[in-house]
Amino acid sequence: MKILEDRIRRDGTVLAGNVLKVDNFLNHQIDPQLMDQIGAEFAHQFKDAGITKILTVESSGIAPAVMAGLHMGVPVIFARKHKSLTLTDNLYTAKVYSYTKRVNNDISIDRRFLDKEDRVLIVDDFLANGQAVQGLLDIAQTAQIKVAGVGVVIEKRFQKGHQLVEDAGIQLEALASIAAFEDGQVVFAQD
Ligand code: 5GP
User: Fold this and answer.
1) Quick one: which residues bind 5-phospho-alpha-D-ribose 1-diphosphate (predicted)?
2) Domain map (residue ranges) of the chain
3) For ligand 1, atom 4, which residue shows the shortest CA distance?
4) Does the CB atom of residue 134 touch ligand 1 within 6 A?
5) Which one of 15, 20, 35, 69 has the fewest beta carbons within 10 angstroms of its own beta carbon?
């Protein structure tokens, strides 16, 4: 997605540890117009996948997931990382190792929001080693629901997540695909 690549070139900063900082349009301050275009693009790419719900993980996945849900006309569920007084039992849970925070989180989704007939699209801001996606795949497996696609705003193709999703035989769409970081610059994959 050209507009997204241009924005990453303009506003992204490459940090140590292969981390791309994009906090002025995606991870802290959010650009609603760009999110709208991102949502429309996901809706276009998964239009034939029969999606009934979108799953993501709080907090950075929520903005693109909600916009995709708006364009697809389906509800969006975000897995919670923190225990909540109103989220007590009857949960699907999975363990996720956080790439940026370097800690393990339990993520949870209330069982009431997933039905066996659901075909879900997993949406997230980044795909790095695939731990967040794997946690949602684990929940989907326990809930016996079909994962019909994975859509990420930015993938770092040189890390393990891309292969993990491909090996699971799931349609993967990344709106910007990073092949490498070289001398503090982003190199996009060509295809
Ligand atoms: P994974 O679980 O695929 O290893 O990492 C994906 C999660 O870690 C995303 O939900 C995202 O929040 C965070 N993450 C991974 N790599 C980056 C990065 O380069 N920049 C930012 N801002 N977040 C990242």
Assistant:
1) 128-132
2) 2-188
3) 129
4) no
5) 15
The Cα–Cα gap between 26 and 175 comes to 13
Predicted complex: ipTM over 0.90: yes
131 Cβ inside 6 Å of ligand 1: yes
Distance in Å, CA 80 to ligand 1 centroid:
16
Q: Which fold has domain 2-188?
A: Rossmann fold (3.40.50)
The reported pLDDT for the residue numbered 82 is 79
Atom of ligand 1 nearest to the CA of 126: 9
The CA 128 to ligand 1 mean position distance, Å, reads: 6
